[in-house]
Amino acid sequence: MRPELLYPLFQPVDSLKGVGSRVAPLVHKLAGPKVVDVLWHLPTGVIDRRYRPTVAEAIPGKVATLVLTVDEHRAPPPGSRAPYRVAASDATGTLTLVYFRAGRDYMMKLLPPGEQRAVSGRIEVFNDLPQMAHPDHVVPLSELASIQTIEPVYPMTQGLAPRVLRKIVLAALAAGLKVAQGAPEWLDPTLVARRGWPTWGDALRAAHEPADDDAVSPLSPARQRLAYDELLATQLALSIARAKMRARPGRPREGDGAMRAAALAGLPFALTRAQSTALDEIAADMARPSRMLRLLQGDVGSGKTVVAWLAMLIALETGAQAALMAPTEILARQHMETLTPLAEAIGVRIALLTGRDKGKPREETLAALEAGTIRVIVGTHALFQDDVRFRDLGLVVIDEQHRFGVDQRLGLSSKGPDADVLVMTATPIPRTLTLTHYGDMDISRLDEKPPGRQPIETVVLPTQRLPDVIAAIQRAIAAGNKVYWVCPLVAESETDDVAAAEGRYEDLRQILGGRVGLVHGRMKAAEKDAVMERFAGEGVDVLVATTVIEVGVNVPAATVMVIEHAERFGLAQLHQLRGRIGRGSAKSTCLLLYQGPLGEIARDRLQVIRTTEDGFVIAEEDLRLRGAGEVLGTRQSGLPNFRLADLAAHADLLDTASADARLILERDPDLTTPRGQALRVLLYLFERDAAVRTVRSG
Ligand code: ADP
Ligand code: MG
């Protein structure tokens, strides 16, 4: 149960003063549904209103606060689009206040002729005369103090005036400060002292009442402190979940190596150093009595599948079964195709189970699985339906894990209560993100490609060169190569994107003749599969696709990829797409077509993708260029974004938080010491209730 102390922060926003039924949905949309969400809505900049010149001194372009006497109203003639002007002056000169679409009654009340008003806004010059359009503040002199000299600027949403939002934030801040008075310090006092961080309450105040520009920087002590709170809560929650997973009885699995030896002898190649190391790490984990929870991270084409297969054989050597789960039907089938000959070579019975299996065949598979005669099952999430039962599931391998939610990953163990878990990801996640998303999960990295691969030549071209590109692919096809042609998916309208892809498909068919195929997200799975099959085999030389072409789809004869509007793709996405070529021994080319003019970030991105194929380098650059939230594609991953931490700026804090979390759990696994109790409050504050429950029950 959430501590009572925190209740005020978890009230709905409309419990705050100033939030009525009109404003509540806007605040909800902007920050979130609860008071604490408003508290976490931090300013991104400040407006400095300390500049107090006379009219004669006022420098154009600067924000200034002036005291003026209202002289004369000049309303536009009815029906005119001219602005409403008010002349106001001090002893040194006249300044015109300009309002577009203003009513006379309102203006008279705001700026009564003959009276003095303090106005604050940006000084402009029009026809050599100073003016101010739509001052941010107009108040009687008695309220001059209400104009903040340093005014925080918040991310806004349409329909919510800055002044209204500010009032609401101040109400949330007041609630936060009250909670802070009663809250224990959850951070290590030595760390706080060494870093010179404020208390939580002071940090909240400093964040929402910044003293200057520096105070809104992510590197200010207050912002660092708040970010650290969030990071520590996250890391602690992940470590707790992990400790729980580990605490469940596992089983030591140490095969005799016979199946692995037979499998290795049958492979036409030797393992790379990276593959051998990863396999050793996996074998050591499986031999331990606790459960394995390991991430196998490797670029597209780095050879994860072989490693996973050999890991599955360890389970089989001990008499257990193994499962391989893929995020899509296509990938599951492709894994099945890859593994079937390997399994047959050593006499292992393998089967496929997806959502498409129905009726008698499905029942037979389920029966054989329960009897244990099927040793390896490959499938989609259909594997986790209730009626799927194993005789003894020893290892679960999950491919392309970022497509599955974290909860699914943690909940998956039900099929084999003591099964080891190996997660494969083709997204080379930067190290910092691995930490935040997987906690201190063990990691094996395949940072080396199998030998014999030719580097992919990547060329960046403006769209105007399209005719040259078409000529180039005509040559490629004539030489027996296959071509991917990727049309971008722009989120606004899937219909338009599909239309664009269809249009391109028609163009290319006219130019190249019949051997062009099309796949997009609106097609049925069976239709897509059919086209893919013809592309992998005979019949289709050029595959026009939206970004639905699945990660990992393997067509070694494809040596050319054209990506239209490459400037619209993220780095990770470009890298994933490009990974579909360069899979055979022939030289491959990637043509990135862009529509200029390019922004700075787009230019940087294309430069990075042109110069390196190293997924880990690309991922780090992606993080640098875009910020953490988008690297994984949060929409896809279902992972939460940070509210206070900015991983580009706070990466070092993440390391500290991770180490801190581990140490805390070593010393105080049940969080019962006074600091442990304080940390429980922190976990609740960041809505990690499940983690606290886990500690309790464990
Ligand atoms: P990933 O799943 O990491 O994208 P795969 O496991 O599909 O990569 O491997 C890509 C290709 O490389 C496959 O055709 C596979 O047989 C081959 N391969 C894997 N390991 C090696 C190796 N050590 N030497 C040569 N080829 C390899
Ligand atoms: Mg693969």
UniProtKB/TrEMBL annotation:
PROSITE patterns: HELICASE_ATP_BIND_1, HELICASE_CTER. Residues 285-446 form the Helicase ATP-binding domain. GO terms for biological process: DNA recombination; DNA repair. It is an enzyme of class 5 (isomerase). Keywords: ATP-binding, DNA damage, DNA recombination, DNA repair, DNA-binding, Helicase, Hydrolase, Isomerase, Nucleotide-binding. Transmembrane segments: none annotated. It catalyses: Couples ATP hydrolysis with the unwinding of duplex DNA by translocating in the 3'-5' direction; ATP + H2O = ADP + phosphate + H(+). One of its GO terms (molecular function) is ATP binding. Residues 465-624 form the Helicase C-terminal domain. The keyword Phosphoprotein does not apply. Its EC number is 5.6.2.4. It comes from the Bacteria. InterPro entries: ATP-dep_DNA_helicase_RecG, DEAD/DEAH_box_helicase_dom, Helicase_ATP-bd, Helicase_C-like, NA-bd_OB-fold, P-loop_NTPase, RecG/Mfd, RecG_dom3_C. It holds the Pfam family DEAD. Belongs to the helicase family. RecG subfamily. Plays a critical role in recombination and DNA repair. Helps process Holliday junction intermediates to mature products by catalyzing branch migration. Has replication fork regression activity, unwinds stalled or blocked replication forks to make a HJ that can be resolved. Has a DNA unwinding activity characteristic of a DNA helicase with 3'-5' polarity. This is ATP-dependent DNA helicase RecG. It comes from Roseospira marina.
